[in-house]
């Protein structure tokens, strides 16, 4: 990265204009609950609008969105692409494996070159925490940056599509008990979800994980920590399962998949401890038979595919709000 850049705390002024509108979307941390509801309200409009009519809402017409994915992705990249297209943008997917990034070009030089091709928005995924923030700090002022996942740090649009799905299914957040189960330590999704859930005033936020997969300082984020699955599942309204991020793990932390399933795998039987109408979520990719039994993933409680569909509307919402703020408009 840049020799002088230290990814530190993210001031709100980096994401918001002086009027409090979105300029970049880098993290859910510290964002006011009204803004989170604005994103969901707007996503609601896109969800209820048939795809054909969505194309008639060209908030991004004439704009160029560049997807910069330095890490693998299916759902996030494709739904960002569809969202940008439905808003009328030109979308380019930079294939990093065949780009000059592999020839030693610095990230900033790559960014400068893409700016010279008239980019308006960068959607960035990178294995290093702080990369989206770094690009937002140094790119041209008319460009907006959306964080599509940076290391273990944040994945704000995933968290917002999860919040949107919860609001669709359950309404108000205040009476809800929500738990995130699994590899919290390596999960940018968990961090962004916890910030969003607490900002939205969720009744109780729990994490359920083995001690080795709970990050230090998590207790200060306003969550209750459970190491026992059956205790943690009691009376839940929403259960969010996470994949073990094996690519980010030291081998010492790596429980065997069978052992993990035995202790923390979601099965119909164990879910009997939750409320009868509890929903099961997962950001994907799911590992069947590790954190979730196939019968649960494909069963009636699962809203996993709805999360994927909602990803398009939520990303449309965020992108259109950003473009509205950038143009100084009322969007
Ligand atoms: C997550 C990610 O990449 O952070 N997936 C996603 O964006 N849908 C979670 C994961 O990789 O396990």
How would you characterize the overall build of this protein?
One of its GO terms (biological process) is 'de novo' UMP biosynthetic process. With 331 residues, the chain is of the alpha/beta class. It has two domains: 3-155 and 309-326, Rossmann fold; 156-303, Aspartate/ornithine carbamoyltransferase (Rossmann fold). Helices cover 35% and strands 14% of the residues. The strands form two sheets. It has a five-stranded parallel sheet with strand order 7-6-5-8-9. α1 packs across α6 (156-170) and α6 (156-170) crosses α7. The mean pLDDT is 92. The structure holds N-carbamoyl-L-aspartate.
List the helices and strands and how they pair.
Elements: H1 33-48, H2 51-54, E1 64-69, H3 75-86, E2 90-95, H4 107-115, E3 121-126, H5 131-138, E4 144-150, H6 156-170, E5 177-181, H7 188-199, E6 204-208, E7 224-226, H8 229-233, E8 238-241, H9 257-264, E9 279-281, H10 294-297, H11 304-326
Parallel strand pairs: 1-2, 1-3, 3-4, 5-6, 5-8, 6-7, 8-9
Helix pairs in contact: 1-6, 1-11, 3-11, 6-7, 6-11
The structure holds N-carbamoyl-L-aspartate.
N-carbamoyl-L-aspartate binds at residues 75-76, 149, 155, 158, 188-189, 243, 245, 283-284.
Keywords: Pyrimidine biosynthesis, Transferase
GO molecular function: amino acid binding; aspartate carbamoyltransferase activity
InterPro entries: Asp/Orn_carbamoyltranf_P-bd (IPR006132), Asp/Orn_carbamoylTrfase (IPR006130), Asp/Orn_carbamoylTrfase_sf (IPR036901), Asp_carbamoyltransf (IPR002082), Asp_carbamoyltransf_Asp/Orn-bd (IPR006131)
């Amino acid at each position: 990265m840049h020799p002088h850049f230290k990814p530190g705390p993210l001031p709100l002024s980096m994401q918001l204009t002086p009027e409090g509108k979105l300029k970049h979307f880098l993290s859910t941390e510290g964002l006011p609950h009204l803004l989170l509801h604005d994103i969901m309200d707007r996503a609601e409009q896109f969800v209820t609008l048939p795809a054909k009519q969505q194309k008639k809402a060209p908030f991004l017409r004439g704009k160029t969105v560049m997807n910069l994915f330095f890490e693998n992705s299916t759902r996030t990249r494709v739904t960002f692409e569809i969202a940008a297209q439905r808003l009328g943008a030109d979308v380019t997917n930079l294939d990093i494996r065949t780009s000059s990034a592999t020839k030693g070009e610095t990230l900033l030089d790559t960014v400068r070159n893409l700016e010279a091709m008239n980019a308006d928005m960068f959607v960035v995924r990178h294995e290093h925490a702080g990369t989206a923030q770094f690009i937002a700090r140094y790119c041209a002022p008319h460009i907006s940056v959306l964080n599509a996942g940076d290391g273990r740090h944040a994945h704000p649009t995933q968290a917002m599509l999860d919040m949107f799905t919860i609001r669709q299914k359950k309404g108000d957040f205040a009476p809800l008990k929500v738990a995130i189960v699994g590899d919290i330590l390596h999960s940018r999704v968990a961090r962004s979800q916890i910030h969003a859930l607490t900002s939205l005033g969720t009744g109780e936020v729990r994490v359920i994980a083995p001690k080795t997969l709970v990050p230090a300082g998590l207790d200060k984020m306003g969550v209750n920590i459970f190491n026992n699955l059956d205790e943690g599942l009691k009376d839940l309204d929403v259960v969010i399962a996470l994949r073990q991020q094996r690519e980010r793990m030291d081998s010492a932390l790596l429980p065997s998949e069978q052992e993990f399933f035995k202790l923390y795998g979601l099965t119909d039987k164990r879910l009997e401890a939750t409320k009868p109408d509890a929903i099961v979520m997962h950001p994907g990719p799911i590992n069947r038979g590790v954190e979730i039994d196939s019968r649960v993933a494909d069963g009636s409680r699962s809203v996993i595919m709805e999360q994927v569909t909602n990803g398009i509307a939520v990303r449309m919402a965020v992108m259109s709000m950003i473009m509205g703020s950038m143009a100084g408009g009322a969007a």
